[in-house]
Amino acid sequence: NENNIVIPVVINVVYQHANENISDEQILEQIRVLNEDFGRLNPDADGAWPQAANTDLQFQLANRAPDGTPTTGIRRRYTSYSNFSTYDDVKFAKSGGIDAWPTEHYLNIWVCNLEGDIMGYGQLPGGPAATDGVVIDFQFFGRYGHTQAPFDRGRTATHEVGHWLNLFHIWGDGDCTIDDMVADTPDSDEANHGCPKDAYSCGGKLMVQNFMDYTDDACMNLFTQGQARRMQALFATGGFRSGFLR
Ligand code: ARG
Ligand code: ZN
Ligand code: CA
User: Fold this and answer.
1) Of these residues, 20, 29, 36, 160, which one is catalytic?
2) Virtual CA dihedral for 41, 47, 51, 55, nearest 10 degrees?
3) 134-137 and 107-112 beta bridge pairing
4) With pLDDT > 70 as the criterion, what percentage of the chain qualifies?
5) Contact 153/221 with Cβ under 8 angstroms?
6) Which superkingdom heads the taxonomic lineage of this protein's source (predicted)?
7) What ipTM score was computed for the predicted complex, to two decimals?
């Protein structure tokens, strides 16, 4: 629609083994998931929560490199590192990764082998510019055939991009008194896992379907109107990402 904000994305694939050098198709599938989830076009959207929202945020692989030349929006590099931690080595060429394209104009997504069972992590707005972006393990990027159940619907990237767009975890990383700064997400005192049915806490029904919880991919299906407004505010005059789109 005409209110859409279209965010240019660059995918930085850092691999040692062939299976970590994921296909263009797997990447395109992840971009499709982001557009479905943020546009509330996801096939599993339901009527469970009336505040569920289309965020009007959309994602497109960059078609211009920083120097203006045409690009696929996909960069690839072989690395001698067998895996990466959450200490951001993957974001720098000097430590086996790929340097970001200017983070004031591109959403940088790094795809690599993350150590242990880390699926991904995202930097909130306001952190260092050079590391602004999200990192996703290659086994959880894209959906179905390429990814591991129960995190096989591309929602790790949806969740991490939510952080990049200023969203906190729905339970606010604390007890019932700690808020996620969004009025229309119910209070919650801890992360939910799996897909609890009719779960209650903090005096109300828990929104286990929210992308910013820790439930399984098949359980999650919504952002709220309040979350949508919080994300959109970044691109408004005075917002942290107001200079993003040119
Ligand atoms: N644990 C990760 C984080 O804190 C992501 C969880 C994503 N959940 C999912 N169902 N894919 O950012
Ligand atoms: Zn998170
Ligand atoms: Ca809330």
Assistant:
1) 160
2) 0
3) parallel
4) 100
5) no
6) Bacteria
7) 0.94
